[in-house]
Amino acid sequence: MLTAKQNNQLVDLTQIPKKELAQLKLSSNYECPYCGSPVIFKQGPKRRAHFSHIAPCDYDSHTHESEAHQLSKLVLSQWLINQGATSVQLEYRLSAVNRIADIYFEWNQQKYVFEIQKSLMTPELFEQRNKDYCQSGIQVIWIFIRDIQERSHTYLLNQVMRLQKGNRLIHFNVLTETLTFFDHLVWLNQKEVEGTIESIPLKFLSLDQLLFPPQAYKQKRLSEWLAIKKEFRCQKYAGYQRKEYALLRMCAPFLINLSLLPSVVGWPIEEVAYEKPLFIWQAYVVLCIMSNYEEHEVFTLSEIRQKLRLHYRLKESQHTWLALKKYLELLSMFGMIREQFGYYEYIKKPHLYLQLEPYLIEDEQLGQLWLQQKN
């Protein structure tokens, strides 16, 4: 443990020069910032200087924090003070729910906490923390600090950031003191996203920019999205060929594989519909319609949703209904189905080619319709 409290002041070992660390042995009355129990300062030839509990810490939220975590808290707390936030506190204790927030502050009469997360936790624990803060009348802002990887058109996110699926993501690089915001995300698979991504140095950022996401959606250029579709058709489909057995069985009667999915598959829907990649869950929807209905038969959104859940075991998200409805609207615009009086009519089977090149041409043609829908 690299921090402790002494006389209500935070002692941070990462901010103390090595030559001055020995003086800490002469002091006492150190307390754990999490549980308030006594701790002692230790320093030796094999282990770095740290604080250690005399008795085990039983506070649920207490974990060993990295230097990046400690430094991030100090930098962000000072930034909040400079922004004019009030009641800024590090290691804020919520005894009612047995939680300790990394940073607590108040802004415009609203209570907030920053939770700075680097290590992986279970989805259940992540949801429980959100629930605990909500019950306490506090809005939690998650800030992730583990490395992320930028690609040509997309970002590869780390495991802990994926816990915030379906919501805005905030990443902090403590070395450059830069915040990166991920808004209007489209999840291509369990790790990779595209969307509106903006990096802002902390010194140029206002607190309102951090707390209130922009509503306007800046559409990705068609050429960039076509490059994402082409990459799936030419490379990434192969990884799913080895595990999407149910989808491959649906493809077999139509003599196609995942690289030759119809062009109506693979268009961006912001909401997460199922715990499947974008191209895969949309393929399930299209092939489900083609397999279960004849042309000019009608069906409802609820029927399709039930078939996907019961017959093909697709695990839903909290936004399934909305995402599925948006995708059916796209299929209507692409001419595969027609919406009328709450029902959908299957009016035309999408083109099924045997070669890749015609699909790349048709992708671009449907892309023009997709842009019209956005405009």
UniProtKB/TrEMBL annotation:
UniProt domain Competence protein CoiA nuclease-like: residue ranges: 65-213
Q: Name one Pfam family in it.
A: CoiA_nuc
* Residue ranges occupied by any Competence protein CoiA C-terminal domain in the UniProt entry: 224-340
Positions of the Competence protein CoiA-like N-terminal domain: 14-55
Q: Which InterPro entries match?
A: CoiA-like_N, CoiA_C, CoiA_nuc
> This chain belongs to which protein, by name?
Competence protein CoiA
Q: Which organism is it from?
A: Turicibacter bilis
